UniProtKB/TrEMBL annotation:
Its EC number is 4.2.1.46. One of its GO terms (biological process) is nucleotide-sugar metabolic process. It catalyses: dTDP-alpha-D-glucose = dTDP-4-dehydro-6-deoxy-alpha-D-glucose + H2O. This is dTDP-glucose 4,6-dehydratase. It comes from the Bacteria. It is an enzyme of class 4 (lyase). The keyword Membrane does not apply. Its cofactor is NAD(+). Keywords: Lyase, NAD.
Amino acid sequence: MKKILITGGAGFIGSHVVRRFVLHHPEYHIYNLDALTYAGNLENLRDVENAPNYTFVKGDIVDASFIDSLISENDFHGIIHLAAESHVDRSISDPMSFVMTNVVGTVNLLNAAKKAWAGDMAGRRFYHVSTDEVYGELHDPGTFFLETTKYDPRSPYSASKASSDHFVRAYHNTYKLPVVISNCSNNYGPNHFPEKLIPLMIHNILNNKPLPVYGKGENIRDWLFVEDHARAIDVIFHKGVNGDTYNIGGHNEWTNIDLVKLLCGLMDKKLGRAEGESAALITYVTDRAGHDLRYAIDATKLSEELGWKPSLQFEEGLERTVDWYLNNKEWLHNVTSGEYKGYYDSMYVNR
Ligand code: NAD
Ligand code: TYD
């Protein structure tokens, strides 16, 4: 049975990727490597944890000798790398942890794969999961990020992801490591840690807390349902061209304020509240430093070359997401209390 290593599989997107590969690919044994930081949670994978083709490995990608042993002792057919520090606000207050995990951690994985796969690269694949934020920000409506758009990272988070992308391409060029990269827009869906916009707003609406909208709420993001991203990763892992990059996006742009109002209306209905009750919680707060104005992806290459398209309309995806949080209040409570509480509260200090 071919072994696939997925890093960061206990996190938001990683858990959906692990589930998809465990359930859709019984021909693989999936190894989920995760350090279980504040963002990683094995609760996200309860439904597949006893599957015969699944193994969890706790470990840190920053630990070079551990990574080297893991990859040299297991004959991994592929590596799908998602482990990262992923929150822009945290990167503003603590850039170095982003350098360590996102840059050093990625290079540790590349070095280990290069060594273990030397002389036997055929059929192997190192898949690096990246973000559209490496392209910087857009201003003009009707302009989009293409795979050829020049990198222009503007936050410590996007700078660390851009740096890791460059290392992945450099290992392909220099050592012929078989790599593929995708750059995706903002994801939403179940198991999203409630420090990011959509789950934070759901959490605060539920708890009647202020809904902090940065600046004037005019920044624009392109939202994609997380299961569509996991399906794109599956397609690119199997059909993508070595050395290529694929943009993934939802063609679904929303200003933050319109999105928060849509969510408020949806939650009013679900919670039996009067219309406008949740929106009254909206509070404009100091803007994020260096806040990127607009992200929008052109995913034509992925749809034309590999046949992937988003499957869900936003309203449907958002309703599924809200329903998941309403049915999993215990998950929400657990990740914002107990051992996670310090991490959770710390982000408020950053505002
Ligand atoms: P997340 O923060 O929810 O999860 C990250 C996971 O990585 C967690 O399980 C955490 O425990 C693990 N991790 C962190 N540091 C680690 C380390 N040193 N060693 C091992 N494991 C470690 O992140 P996410 O939102 O699921 O993002 C996953 C990947 O997708 C990231 O690479 C991110 O840059 C990329 N991405 C995210 C989005 C988005 O909208 N969330 C969009 C495009 C790309
Ligand atoms: P976020 O979910 O952090 O993703 P990213 O910054 O990687 O796009 O934020 C999405 C947008 O929402 C971004 O423009 C910042 C804004 N935002 C708020 O207005 N309030 C908040 O509390 C958060 C977390 C984000």
